Amino acid sequence: MSTIELTKMQGCGNDFVIIDYAEYEKTGMAMDELAKKVCDRHFGVGADGMIIPKTDTANTDIGWYFYNSDGSIAQMCGNGMRCFARYVYDKGLVKKKEFSVATGAGIISPQFLEDGNVKVNMGIPVLEDAKIPFKGERKLKVLDREFDITPVSMGNPHCVITVEDTPMDMALKYGPVIERHEYFPEKTNTEFVKIISKSEIEMCVYERGCGITLACGTGACASVVACVLNNLTEQNVKVNLPGGAVFVEWQGNKDNPQKNIFLTGPANYSFRAEYML
Question: What architecture does CATH give domain 3-118+267-276?
Answer without folding.
Answer: Roll (3.10)
